[in-house]
Amino acid sequence: MELEHHEIELRYEALRLRDPARESRLAASLLAEGQRHPVLVITVPGARAVLVDGYRRVRALAAIHRDVVQALDLTCAADEALLRAWRLGVGRRPEAIEEAWLLRELRDEHGLAQRDLAVRTGRTVSWVSRRLALVAVLPEAVQARLRAGAVGAYAAQRVLVPLARANPAHCERFVEVLAREPLSARQLAQWWRAWRAGDAAVRERLVADPLLYLRTVAAVDRRLVLPAESPEGRAAALLGTVAGACRRARAQLGPLLTTHPELTAHDGVHAATRQARGAWQALTDALEMIDAGRRPADRDPDAA
Fold it and tell me: Are the C-beta atoms of 138 and 161 separated by less than 8 Å?
């Protein structure tokens, strides 16, 4: 069926994230190729067609001044239409926060209990509960920023949700910064690690001026970059290799010794332990020289 924009009711627009960059690309695609997939609607007697899925396409079509929207009437109740659109996932998979908004809509406006939601989505009650917890913990001001596309889904799920659980006021202040100055995933991870590790005073400074902290970290990182072929660069690369080997050995030894405790009494394991300890002690001597900023003294290379 064909609908004009004024014939479409955007009742469920608040259940979707906005992404201006993606919508611009979609508008360019629609301009070049036309609308290839219909949007999904339900028709309500005596009212406009209610848009269930395809909000980005409708906005993109309006942006390029296309008056007609190709639509498919699902001819079912609103709750079933919302779930059917979620299952189809036309164009992209929904983000976790969008699933949370959908579940809240079905619970609060359509009277579905969490067990019913689990059955009808094919997920567990625990999954439904975790998704609903996203909207329960995020302040409404933060959710409004998400809907407007001012903050990305990655930031919401990896940083804003745990931040809101720990300190809702800090979450609201930080999201205002993100709305003005979008940060990369790496910058978000750096800021979040620093906030978690800091005391109350440090956390307050991080929220008051997160960009100052990130600029400082970037300046330090630039000073730490060493030419790969320089003696300093080779030394740093060797130490990085050692650190990686230590982490990998620890990650594998822990489970191995837990599941096979008898290995701790094996003579071969003890011999390998002595070798590792001796090698580590020799390396520790070199690390102490680095810490002290001294030149290594002349020594017998076989002394270790």
Answer: yes
Tell me the per-residue pLDDT of 4-46, one tens digit each, with 9 for 90 and over: 999 999 999 999 888 888 889 999 999 999 898 899 999 987 7
- Token representation of residue 53: 């899925």
* Residues near 134 by beta carbon (within 8 Å), at least 6 away in sequence: 96, 97, 100, 157, 161
At the second CATH level, the architecture of 2-137 is Alpha-Beta Complex (3.90)
Is 72 a residue whose pLDDT tops 50?
A: yes
Q: What is the 3-state secondary structure (H, E, C) of the chain?
A: CEEEHHHEECCCHHHCCCCHHHHHHHHHHHHHHCCCCCEEEEECCCCCEEEEECHHHHHHHHHCCCCEEEEEECCCCHHHHHHHHHHHCCCCCCCHHHHHHHHHHHHHCCCCCHHHHHHHHCCCHHHHHHHHHHHHHCCHHHHHHHHCCCCCHHHHHHHHHHHHHHCHHHHHHHHHHHHHCCCCHHHHHHHHHHHHHCCHHHHHHHHHCHHHHHHHHHHHHHHHCCCCCCHHHHHHHHHHHHHHHHHHHHHHHHHHHHHCHHHHHCHHHHHHHHHHHHHHHHHHHHHHHHHHCCCCCCCCCCCC
Specify the domain boundaries for CATH 3.90.1530.10 within the chain: 2-137
Cβ–Cβ under 8 Å, residues 42 and 50: yes
Pairing between β-strand 8-9 and β-strand 49-53 as defined by DSSP bridges? parallel
pLDDT bucket at 93, cuts 50 / 70 / 90: confident
